[in-house]
Design brief:
single chain, about 725 residues, alpha/beta, eight-stranded mixed sheet, six-stranded mixed sheet, about 15% strand
Length: about 725
């Protein structure tokens, strides 16, 4: 086995699922052309080797970190120049790799892939090892993101964000001393500026013409809803302090939340709106990709307690600006400023509010701006969903509650945080036992539900579903949706609860609605959609959806298991077996045992970490539907029977057969294929739960030696001749 040190670059396309959903052929054509005409020659020019292409991803090996970083910088700049719709994330690591033919494996590759997931759209992230090699040698600036715990990587990794810029240590060019001639030109330019300003004031009195290229209804990815539809783009942080990014993002999210509670509006979810963060996009593009008529964009500047908000509402179908306004105030006025923006939008779109909606618009979750500011800082960290980020979020949420003990949203956020810590087994990272994380989740949830917010009910629904109280989980999820009909994540949560309660037809409606509100939805929505189609026994549709889900959720076992069962229901056992083999390969690479199959009603078997726990899929009827599709898949059935040996064995061996050899699973499969006689030694309950096709059930007899079992010659002669190949299992 060959090993070598290499610089590994992992890249993938941002928002690939949504791009493919909107224009599959066009996206593939553009991506293929970009690879052939630009990326592959660029990689070759920097002495790189394309290891493999993975749909929307590329894995490249370099001998030099410097070559990798220079190539990555040129890559991002060139793609931005050539294609306005495709954006890449790139991760670069220097590490040891295992070479197998043309492919490479190992932690060095895994770290690069994880770093790519941390990069911004159009951005680059380096590991600490890669950074230390590249610094001072490339025209780039580096931002230390600290140590990050990466999934399936044992030790935390130092991460650096890489951006193009002046090399470290290079002095900025000094401004040229103005000459007499240049001063005269400056005066002239000042005069021209005055003319332009005066002319502008005169033009301001005239009706404003459209300033944006209109969107085309024919090019909309989705039909326009039957009510005013709007996307709120992330507000730009115009503050001198980049640490105020959380404040601009929080402002955007608050506006989305406020608007989404109005039943007369169709509001695109935060996830899809924020997919455009940091990008230079046209209003037409946003409207066509998201299927909306109106787009709100703006900026926030904060200096100390002073706040300035600029916002403009655009009708994408005409390109015209409905209104543009500036709002000035202090941090104490922040809620009033947000209300003014919301009211302007409602008025501009001529939306009628119900009495309840007017009351809701007037109510704020806290009247303490400082508490809200602390909450926003915690929420910015919580969204990163890493153990370190969650640990960092806790003090901010706690500070919000110190300032306002009745702040329901902060309680709900802590409940969600501690529940995530509990179910993901991250309690150790927060310095607490797992049971403490669970109790903290329940304590904060109880307080959040006193003044309910959608997040509180959504967390309650997840907890109830984990306890198999599916009907109660549905009721809680419905309460979350009732509080915010435009909340895509709440709708997806309701769909999940309904599917587990075996009410898939209703679940399908809600997951499709969630996907429409969030066109750039998280990949997990595909699993929920596929699960709904599967439960409705629309197995062909489910297969198509779940193949996409497995591609975009390569580490989520649910997609593979649903897909294998869907194929099993259609009789495509070989394909189903390949799906399980693929999943087992992934499990083996990260040190997890191969999957086996357990019927919840069958004899209790150990090795739970390798069993498919059907209980997590929902009610008994749901489990049975899944089991029916899985029960004949060889990879699962063979592994299932193999794991039983360690449970039912006596001492270190089950039996002794003179002259017989202990064989492995592939050898057993080969013997079965060529007609060997298989004798199943299981007790009756296990035999009934499942056995190798064509096997003979022959119960053993205990000998005087407690560590030995025997078979009578007469019993063996009934099933096999002296020259037959026999496999005992």
């Amino acid at each position: 086995m060959e090993r070598r040190l290499a610089a590994i670059l992992a890249a993938d396309v941002v928002g690939y699922t949504a791009l493919m959903g909107a224009d599959e052929e066009g996206t593939l054509r553009r991506l293929t052309g970009l690879r052939q005409d630009f990326l592959e020659p660029l990689i070759a020019d920097h002495r790189g080797r394309v290891v493999k292409l993975m749909g929307d991803g590329i894995l490249v090996e370099f001998a030099s970190v410097v070559d990798a970083v220079v190539c990555a910088l040129a890559w991002q700049a060139g793609v931005a120049e050539r294609d306005g719709t495709l954006k890449f994330r790139i991760g670069i690591n220097l590490g040891d790799v295992i070479v197998e033919g043309e492919d490479i494996y190992g932690d060095g590759v895994n770290v690069a892939a994880r770093l790519e997931g941390l990069a911004e759209p159009g951005g680059i992230c380096l590991s600490g090892d890669a950074y230390r090699t590249a610094r001072g040698k490339v025209e780039a600036t580096f931002e230390d993101l600290g140590e990050q715990r990466l999934k399936n990587v044992a030790e935390p990794v130092s991460v650096y964000r890489c951006r193009p810029g002046r090399p470290p240590g290079e002095k900025a060019k000094q401004p040229r001393t103005p000459t007499k001639r240049s001063l005269s030109f400056a005066v002239l330019a000042g005069g021209l500026t005055l003319v332009v300003i005066v002319t502008g004031l005169l033009l301001w009195q005239q009706p404003r013409e459209p300033r944006e290229e209109p969107a085309s209804a024919a090019n909309m990815a989705f039909p326009l809803p039957d009510k005013p539809s709007i996307a709120v783009l992330p507000f730009n942080n115009m503050s001198d302090d980049v640490s105020q990014e959380y404040f601009a993002d929080g402002m955007t999210e608050d506006l989305i939340t406020d608007l989404s509670k109005i039943s007369g509006l169709f509001v695109i979810a935060r996830n899809s709106s924020f997919s455009y963060k940091g990008q230079q996009v046209k209003v037409r593009q946003v409207a066509e990709e998201l299927g909306v008529r109106y787009v709100l964009e703006g900026s926030v500047r904060r200096a100390g307690d002073e706040v300035r908000i600029n916002a403009q509402l655009i009708d994408a179908t005409t390109g015209g600006h409905l209104w543009a306004e500036r709002y000035d105030g202090t941090l104490k006025d922040i809620f009033d400023l947000q209300d003014q923006v919301t009211e302007q939008i409602v008025a501009a779109l001529a939306v009628s509010l119900t009495g309840a909606e007017r009351a809701e618009q007037a109510r704020h979750e806290t009247e303490h701006p400082e508490a809200h500011d602390a909450y926003l800082q915690g929420w910015a960290r919580y969204k990163l969903q890493t153990p370190e980020a969650l640990k960092g979020a806790v003090p901010f949420f706690e500070e919000a509650l110190r300032l306002d003990p009745d702040y329901a949203q902060a309680h709900a956020a802590l409940a969600s945080l501690y529940w995530d810590v509990y179910v993901n087994d991250w309690a150790f990272d927060l310095g607490m036992p797992s049971t403490r994380a669970e109790s903290q989740a329940n304590e904060h949830l109880e307080k959040a539900l006193k003044s309910p917010v959608p997040l509180a009910h959504a967390v309650q629904a997840k907890i109830l579903a984990s306890w198999q109280f599916y009907d109660d989980a549905v009721l809680e999820a419905e309460k979350a949706v009732a509080l915010d009909e435009n909340d895509a994540s709440a709708l997806a949560g309701l769909a999940n609860a309904l599917i587990k309660a075996d009410r898939a037809e209703e679940g399908l409606v809600h997951i499709e609605q969630a996907m429409r509100l969030d066109p750039h939805h998280p990949p997990s929505y595909l699993i929920t959609l596929g699960a709904a189609q599967f439960s409705l026994e629309r197995f062909e549709e489910a297969t198509s959806t779940l193949k996409r889900a497995a591609k975009h959720n390569s580490e989520n076992e649910l997609a593979y298991i649903y897909l294998a069962s869907a194929l099993g229901h259609q009789g495509h056992i070989e394909q189903a077996d390949d799906v399980i083999d693929t999943l087992n390969y992934v499990r083996n690479r990260i040190g997890i045992k191969e999957l086996s199959l357990r019927d919840p009603s069958a004899y209790a078997i150990s090795h739970a970490d390798a069993q498919i726990d059907l209980l997590r899929f929902g009610a008994k009827s749901v489990q049975q539907r899944l089991l029916t599709g899985l029960k004949d898949i060889p990879s699962l059935r063979w592994q299932y029977l193999l794991t039983m040996h360690t449970v039912l064995g006596v001492g270190n061996t089950w039996w002794e057969v003179e002259g017989a050899a202990l064989i492995d699973l592939p050898t057993a499969k080969a013997l079965h294929d060529r007609g060997a006689i298989f004798i199943d030694t299981s007790i009756d309950d296990v035999w009934k739960a499942g056995h190798v096709s064509g096997a003979i059930h022959l119960v053993w007899e205990r000998s005087l030696d407690p560590n030995r079992v025997t078979y009578g010659k007469a019993a063996l002669r009934k099933v096999a001749g002296p020259d037959d190949e026999i496999v005992f299992y």
